[in-house]
Write a structure and sequence with these properties.
The protein is an alpha+beta fold. The protein is 34% helix and 23% strand.
């Protein structure tokens, strides 16, 4: 009896193991889908809040190849949904930044980036661009929203930072962020001129349309924000994309 029951016992054990493995695998896939869905919702929520858009359907989410400025699909990048923050640490999805260009202290830059476009009456009204760079206490992350002219700042939102409370952490203050509105990233020649000015913008400054008052007592944070904006709107950031988009939209000649 014992010998006859041994194969059956083994078979039952194997069947249970296979079933459990299947359940675990299925649960893992389901959880992975939920995690990804949560990430997608968080990304969209941040972009919507940045752009002041109430309707998620109003934002067209695209992935841009930063080197060329062209749109790509997630399938061109690889399996799974593209995660920009994770890509920066993946040698296959990022590139090293030369020391003389790495003003935001990132070391590596992802090959692709998510962007959000808002159109009104068929015309580009707002463009939402993720930015990040090293601050005083750690990495600063956020979004800049441009008007449809691709030059003028509509708004800014910082979603993650490790700056000092009461000092550099004021980058999240609505009062300070409001000072960005209407400022111009580029000058008439297309050079990046945006700057956060420690001590405040002089009303006599010829560059005041590009300048934002710095945060009192947070000179390093102010300079870091200047650096990360200049990096992302330069040739190593969204420069090629903005040139391509301006051409497609019939702007700037």
């Amino acid at each position: 009896m014992a010998e006859a029951s041994t194969p059956k016992t083994f078979a039952v054990a194997m069947l249970v193991a296979v079933c459990c493995a299947g359940l675990v695998a299925g649960t893992a896939v389901t959880l992975a889908d939920r995690v990804q869905a949560n990430k997608d919702r968080e990304r969209m929520a941040n972009m919507l809040a940045s752009a002041g858009v109430a309707d998620a359907d109003a934002v067209e989410m695209r992935i841009v190849e930063l080197e060329t400025g062209r749109y790509v699909s997630s399938r061109e990048i690889g399996p799974g949904t593209f995660e920009q923050a994770e890509a920066a640490g993946d040698p296959a999805l990022s590139v090293p930044i030369p020391d003389d260009a790495d003003i935001a202290e990132l070391e590596r830059r992802e090959r692709y980036a998510w962007v959000g476009l808002v159109r009104e009456d068929g015309h580009l009204a707002r463009l939402i661009l993720p930015i990040r760079g090293m601050g005083y206490g750690g990495m600063i992350e956020g979004f800049v929203i441009l008007d449809g002219d691709l030059i003028t700042v509509r708004g800014v939102r910082f979603t993650a930072h490790e700056e000092t409370p009461g000092l550099g952490a004021e980058i999240t203050s609505a009062v300070w962020r409001a000072r960005w509105e209407g400022k111009r990233i580029y000058d008439a020649e297309g050079s990046v001129r945006f700057e956060v000015v420690p001590g405040g913008v002089s009303p006599r400054s010829p560059l005041r349309e590009h300048q934002v008052d710095g945060i009192s007592g947070a000179t390093i944070t102010s300079r870091a924000v200047t650096a990360l904006v200049r990096f992302w709107f330069g040739p190593w950031g969204y420069g090629p994309y903005l040139d391509r988009l301006a051409s497609e939209e019939g702007m700037h000649g």
